[in-house]
Specification:
Strand order of the largest sheet: 1-2
Strand content: under 5%
Order of helices and strands: EEHHHHHHHHHHHHHH
Largest sheet: 2 strands, antiparallel
Helix content: 55-70%
Number of strands: 2
Radius of gyration: 21 Å
Shape: elongated
Structural class: mainly alpha
Protein backbone atom coordinates (compact mmCIF):
# COMPACT_ATOMS: atom_id res chain seq x y z
CA UNK A 1 0.00 0.00 0.00
CA UNK A 2 1.15 3.55 -0.75
CA UNK A 3 2.33 5.88 2.00
CA UNK A 4 1.91 9.64 1.75
CA UNK A 5 3.02 12.45 4.01
CA UNK A 6 0.75 15.48 3.86
CA UNK A 7 1.80 18.50 5.93
CA UNK A 8 3.74 16.29 8.29
CA UNK A 9 0.97 13.69 8.72
CA UNK A 10 1.83 10.21 7.45
CA UNK A 11 -0.97 8.30 5.74
CA UNK A 12 -0.31 4.62 5.24
CA UNK A 13 -1.36 1.05 6.09
CA UNK A 14 -1.49 1.59 9.86
CA UNK A 15 -3.36 4.93 9.78
CA UNK A 16 -6.71 5.19 11.56
CA UNK A 17 -8.38 7.12 8.77
CA UNK A 18 -11.78 7.37 10.44
CA UNK A 19 -10.30 8.92 13.58
CA UNK A 20 -8.12 11.29 11.57
CA UNK A 21 -10.94 12.55 9.37
CA UNK A 22 -13.29 12.87 12.32
CA UNK A 23 -10.82 15.12 14.16
CA UNK A 24 -10.35 17.24 11.05
CA UNK A 25 -14.09 17.60 10.44
CA UNK A 26 -14.76 18.38 14.10
CA UNK A 27 -12.21 21.14 14.61
CA UNK A 28 -9.81 21.36 11.67
CA UNK A 29 -6.93 20.41 13.92
CA UNK A 30 -5.02 18.15 11.51
CA UNK A 31 -4.72 20.13 8.28
CA UNK A 32 -5.31 23.85 8.23
CA UNK A 33 -3.94 26.89 6.47
CA UNK A 34 -4.43 30.60 6.91
CA UNK A 35 -7.52 31.58 4.93
CA UNK A 36 -9.38 28.27 5.23
CA UNK A 37 -13.06 28.96 5.83
CA UNK A 38 -13.82 25.46 7.13
CA UNK A 39 -12.18 22.14 8.00
CA UNK A 40 -13.19 20.57 4.68
CA UNK A 41 -10.67 22.73 2.81
CA UNK A 42 -7.79 20.87 4.43
CA UNK A 43 -9.38 17.61 3.36
CA UNK A 44 -9.77 18.84 -0.22
CA UNK A 45 -5.99 19.23 -0.33
CA UNK A 46 -5.45 15.78 1.17
CA UNK A 47 -7.87 14.07 -1.22
CA UNK A 48 -6.27 15.82 -4.18
CA UNK A 49 -2.77 14.77 -3.08
CA UNK A 50 -3.90 11.18 -2.60
CA UNK A 51 -5.73 10.89 -5.93
CA UNK A 52 -5.12 7.58 -7.68
CA UNK A 53 -3.41 5.92 -4.70
CA UNK A 54 -4.38 3.26 -2.15
CA UNK A 55 -4.49 6.06 0.40
CA UNK A 56 -7.37 7.64 -1.53
CA UNK A 57 -9.32 4.38 -1.29
CA UNK A 58 -8.87 4.38 2.48
CA UNK A 59 -9.83 8.05 2.75
CA UNK A 60 -13.06 7.60 0.82
CA UNK A 61 -13.97 4.47 2.78
CA UNK A 62 -13.50 6.46 5.99
CA UNK A 63 -15.57 9.29 4.57
CA UNK A 64 -18.48 6.94 3.90
CA UNK A 65 -18.36 5.76 7.51
CA UNK A 66 -18.41 9.34 8.78
CA UNK A 67 -21.48 10.13 6.68
CA UNK A 68 -23.28 8.14 9.40
CA UNK A 69 -21.38 9.62 12.36
CA UNK A 70 -23.42 10.34 15.50
CA UNK A 71 -21.96 13.86 15.80
CA UNK A 72 -24.04 16.11 13.54
CA UNK A 73 -21.11 18.47 12.94
CA UNK A 74 -18.89 15.63 11.74
CA UNK A 75 -21.75 14.07 9.79
CA UNK A 76 -22.56 17.38 8.10
CA UNK A 77 -18.96 17.83 7.02
CA UNK A 78 -18.79 14.29 5.69
CA UNK A 79 -22.05 14.72 3.77
CA UNK A 80 -20.73 17.92 2.21
CA UNK A 81 -17.57 16.12 1.13
CA UNK A 82 -19.69 13.30 -0.29
CA UNK A 83 -21.20 15.89 -2.61
CA UNK A 84 -17.73 17.19 -3.54
CA UNK A 85 -16.37 13.71 -4.32
CA UNK A 86 -19.53 11.87 -5.33
CA UNK A 87 -17.85 10.20 -8.31
CA UNK A 88 -15.52 8.38 -5.89
CA UNK A 89 -18.27 6.93 -3.71
CA UNK A 90 -20.58 3.94 -4.07
CA UNK A 91 -24.09 5.37 -4.57
CA UNK A 92 -25.71 2.15 -3.35
CA UNK A 93 -24.11 2.68 0.06
CA UNK A 94 -25.43 6.23 0.23
CA UNK A 95 -28.95 5.10 -0.72
CA UNK A 96 -28.75 2.37 1.92
CA UNK A 97 -27.84 4.94 4.59
CA UNK A 98 -30.77 7.17 3.59
CA UNK A 99 -33.18 4.23 3.74
CA UNK A 100 -31.85 2.62 6.92
CA UNK A 101 -31.20 5.76 8.99
CA UNK A 102 -33.60 8.44 7.71
CA UNK A 103 -33.65 10.35 10.99
CA UNK A 104 -29.93 11.09 10.61
CA UNK A 105 -30.54 13.04 7.40
CA UNK A 106 -34.17 13.99 6.77
CA UNK A 107 -34.95 17.34 8.36
CA UNK A 108 -31.42 17.65 9.76
CA UNK A 109 -29.99 21.05 8.85
CA UNK A 110 -26.32 21.06 7.82
CA UNK A 111 -24.02 22.26 10.60
CA UNK A 112 -20.90 24.31 9.95
CA UNK A 113 -20.25 26.63 7.03
CA UNK A 114 -22.04 24.71 4.26
CA UNK A 115 -25.74 25.44 4.47
CA UNK A 116 -26.89 25.39 0.85
CA UNK A 117 -29.21 22.38 1.14
CA UNK A 118 -32.54 22.17 2.97
CA UNK A 119 -31.24 19.17 4.91
CA UNK A 120 -28.55 16.49 4.84
CA UNK A 121 -30.83 14.10 2.97
CA UNK A 122 -31.06 16.38 -0.06
CA UNK A 123 -27.30 16.97 -0.04
CA UNK A 124 -26.75 13.21 -0.24
CA UNK A 125 -29.44 12.84 -2.89
CA UNK A 126 -27.73 15.47 -5.03
CA UNK A 127 -24.44 13.61 -4.60
CA UNK A 128 -26.09 10.40 -5.75
CA UNK A 129 -27.95 11.98 -8.67
CA UNK A 130 -24.96 12.86 -10.80
CA UNK A 131 -23.15 9.59 -10.20
CA UNK A 132 -25.64 6.73 -10.18
CA UNK A 133 -23.30 4.27 -11.93
CA UNK A 134 -26.53 3.27 -13.75
CA UNK A 135 -27.49 1.12 -10.77
CA UNK A 136 -31.21 0.18 -11.07
CA UNK A 137 -31.90 0.50 -7.33
CA UNK A 138 -30.27 3.93 -7.23
CA UNK A 139 -32.14 5.08 -10.33
CA UNK A 140 -35.48 3.95 -8.91
CA UNK A 141 -34.78 5.73 -5.62
CA UNK A 142 -34.11 8.97 -7.51
CA UNK A 143 -37.21 8.55 -9.66
CA UNK A 144 -39.31 8.24 -6.52
CA UNK A 145 -37.91 11.28 -4.74
CA UNK A 146 -37.96 13.40 -7.92
CA UNK A 147 -41.71 13.72 -7.35
CA UNK A 148 -41.12 15.88 -4.27
CA UNK A 149 -42.86 19.15 -5.20
CA UNK A 150 -40.44 21.43 -3.37
CA UNK A 151 -37.00 19.89 -3.81
CA UNK A 152 -37.34 17.17 -6.44
CA UNK A 153 -35.90 19.47 -9.09
CA UNK A 154 -32.55 19.27 -7.28
CA UNK A 155 -31.91 15.80 -8.69
CA UNK A 156 -33.55 16.13 -12.11
CA UNK A 157 -30.32 17.20 -13.80
CA UNK A 158 -28.66 13.99 -12.64
CA UNK A 159 -31.57 11.89 -13.87
CA UNK A 160 -31.40 13.69 -17.22
CA UNK A 161 -27.81 12.48 -17.51
CA UNK A 162 -28.24 8.89 -16.31
CA UNK A 163 -31.92 8.11 -16.92
CA UNK A 164 -32.78 10.21 -19.98
CA UNK A 165 -35.23 7.74 -21.52
CA UNK A 166 -37.41 7.71 -18.41
CA UNK A 167 -37.30 11.51 -18.20
CA UNK A 168 -38.36 11.89 -21.84
CA UNK A 169 -41.08 9.24 -21.75
CA UNK A 170 -42.60 10.72 -18.60
CA UNK A 171 -41.90 14.39 -19.32
CA UNK A 172 -45.37 15.86 -18.47
CA UNK A 173 -45.49 14.05 -15.12
CA UNK A 174 -41.85 14.84 -14.32
CA UNK A 175 -42.07 18.59 -14.94
CA UNK A 176 -45.57 18.81 -13.41
CA UNK A 177 -46.33 22.08 -15.18
CA UNK A 178 -43.38 23.85 -13.55
CA UNK A 179 -40.88 25.55 -15.83
CA UNK A 180 -38.20 25.46 -13.16
CA UNK A 181 -38.32 21.64 -13.19
CA UNK A 182 -37.62 21.71 -16.94
CA UNK A 183 -34.50 23.86 -16.50
CA UNK A 184 -32.04 21.22 -15.16
CA UNK A 185 -33.40 18.63 -17.58
CA UNK A 186 -32.92 20.76 -20.69
CA UNK A 187 -29.45 21.74 -19.49
CA UNK A 188 -28.33 18.12 -18.97
CA UNK A 189 -29.89 16.02 -21.73
CA UNK A 190 -26.89 14.88 -23.74
CA UNK A 191 -28.10 15.16 -27.33
CA UNK A 192 -30.24 17.26 -29.66
CA UNK A 193 -32.50 14.30 -30.33
CA UNK A 194 -33.23 13.81 -26.64
CA UNK A 195 -33.96 17.50 -26.21
CA UNK A 196 -36.33 17.40 -29.19
CA UNK A 197 -38.19 14.39 -27.81
CA UNK A 198 -38.44 16.10 -24.43
CA UNK A 199 -39.92 19.26 -25.94
CA UNK A 200 -42.32 17.30 -28.16
CA UNK A 201 -43.60 15.49 -25.08
CA UNK A 202 -44.54 18.91 -23.64
CA UNK A 203 -46.10 20.34 -26.81
CA UNK A 204 -49.66 19.95 -25.50
CA UNK A 205 -49.06 21.64 -22.17
CA UNK A 206 -50.93 24.93 -21.43
CA UNK A 207 -49.91 27.98 -23.46
CA UNK A 208 -48.48 29.85 -20.48
CA UNK A 209 -46.15 26.98 -19.69
CA UNK A 210 -45.11 26.63 -23.34
CA UNK A 211 -44.28 30.33 -23.55
CA UNK A 212 -42.10 30.05 -20.45
CA UNK A 213 -40.44 26.99 -21.99
CA UNK A 214 -39.61 29.03 -25.11
CA UNK A 215 -37.71 31.46 -22.90
CA UNK A 216 -35.89 28.55 -21.29
CA UNK A 217 -34.89 27.19 -24.69
CA UNK A 218 -33.47 30.60 -25.59
CA UNK A 219 -31.41 30.54 -22.40
CA UNK A 220 -30.20 26.93 -22.41
CA UNK A 221 -29.83 25.77 -26.04
CA UNK A 222 -26.70 27.10 -27.73
CA UNK A 223 -27.14 26.02 -31.35
CA UNK A 224 -29.34 28.58 -33.13
CA UNK A 225 -30.86 26.10 -35.60
CA UNK A 226 -31.76 23.66 -32.83
CA UNK A 227 -33.13 26.53 -30.76
CA UNK A 228 -35.53 27.60 -33.53
CA UNK A 229 -36.56 24.02 -34.23
CA UNK A 230 -37.47 23.41 -30.60
CA UNK A 231 -39.38 26.66 -30.26
CA UNK A 232 -41.38 25.88 -33.42
CA UNK A 233 -42.62 22.66 -31.78
CA UNK A 234 -44.25 24.71 -29.01
CA UNK A 235 -46.06 27.19 -31.26
Amino acid sequence: MDTLVVDGVELGPSTDYVSLLRRQLKNGSIWNEVGDTGPEEGLWRVFDRAAGTDVATQLFDALLKLVADTDVEVRSGAVGLALDYAEQLDPTRLVALLKQHPSMYIGVKPAGTRKGSPDLAWTLRQAIAGHTKRNPEVIQYLRDISRDPENGLRILGGLALDDAEWIVKNAPEVVAGQTQRSRPILANLRSASLRERFIRALAKEPLTFRNELVGLIDAKVKDSAEKERLKAILR
